[in-house]
């Protein structure tokens, strides 16, 4: 739990306990299950989603749409989400193309042929996030020793490929070891660092940035969108931020 400077007599608001309106009850349940997916529970989550569909609690289209949306926010977990998407397509003998091109590409390599689609990237390019010859690859996957040995003269405050700075990459993917290494070298935050911290959800990185005086203005909706509820709670209790009414519904 993130620490709070609020007085002890103030009730903490837990965004994870928000009750959805009735029409969204089962889609919300499915969304929570999909967000919780990891390599240890993939089979269990798949069975639960398929059961919701079989029992007419949610439609096939809704379940696939949720996976599609979440895959755009959790690109590190896209392999697992593609596996879940695949299981639903196979279970109900259907073929529905996702909006996320990366997800579509992975499904293509699993044997699904979508109309008017040809992959641009190779499977490993998507799963690796960045090319293995780029320092961003080692930062995103928190391989700090490899980063040190392969890129001893890294320009720590320059965007790599005009995309993102090394420190922002560490913040975005919650790569704590690389974050500490780059900060010790003198890496500076950018105007995007706070957004990346709220998206990435690493609480230690977030709290260090708080201690360094970062205000995180108007970031509570982003925290809820990425299901980083402890950060959202902190922003509400300590900075008085309030979310949009529909934010975080799914």
Explain what you see:
- With 250 residues, the chain is mainly α.
- The protein has two domains: 22-125; 129-248, Ankyrin repeat-containing domain (Serine Threonine Protein Phosphatase 5, Tetratricopeptide repeat), CATH 1.25.40.20.
- It has 14 helices and no strands.
- Helix 1 packs antiparallel against helix 2 and helix 3 (60-73) runs antiparallel to helix 4.
- The longest helix has 14 residues, at 60-73.
- The two termini are 22 Å apart.
- Residues 4-11 have low confidence and may be disordered.
- This is DUF3447 domain-containing protein.
What's a quick, concise take on this entry?
This protein has 250 residues and is mainly α.
């Amino acid at each position: 739990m993130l620490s709070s400077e609020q007085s002890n007599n103030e009730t903490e608001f837990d965004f994870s306990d928000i009750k959805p309106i009735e029409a969204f009850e089962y889609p919300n349940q499915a969304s929570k299950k999909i967000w919780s997916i990891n390599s240890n529970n993939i089979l269990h989550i798949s069975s639960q989603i398929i059961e919701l569909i079989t029992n007419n609690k949610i439609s096939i289209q809704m379940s696939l749409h949720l996976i599609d949306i979440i895959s755009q926010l959790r690109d590190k977990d896209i392999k697992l989400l593609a596996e879940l998407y695949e299981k639903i397509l196979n279970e109900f003998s259907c073929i529905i193309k996702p909006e996320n091109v990366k997800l579509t590409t992975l499904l293509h390599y699993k044997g699904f042929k979508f109309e008017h689609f040809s992959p641009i990237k190779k499977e490993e390019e998507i799963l690796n996030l960045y090319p293995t010859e780029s320092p961003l690859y080692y930062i995103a996957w928190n391989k700090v020793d490899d980063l040190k040995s392969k890129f001893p003269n890294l320009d720590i405050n320059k965007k790599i490929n005009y995309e993102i700075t090394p420190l922002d990459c560490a913040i975005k993917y919650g790569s704590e070891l690389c974050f500490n290494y780059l900060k010790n070298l003198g890496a500076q935050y950018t105007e995007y660092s706070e957004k990346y911290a709220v998206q990435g959800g690493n609480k230690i990185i977030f709290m260090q940035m708080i201690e360094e005086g970062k205000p995180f203005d108007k970031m509570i909706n982003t925290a809820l969108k990425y299901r980083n509820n402890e950060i959202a709670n902190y922003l509400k209790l300590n900075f008085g931020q309030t979310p949009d009414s529909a934010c975080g519904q799914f």
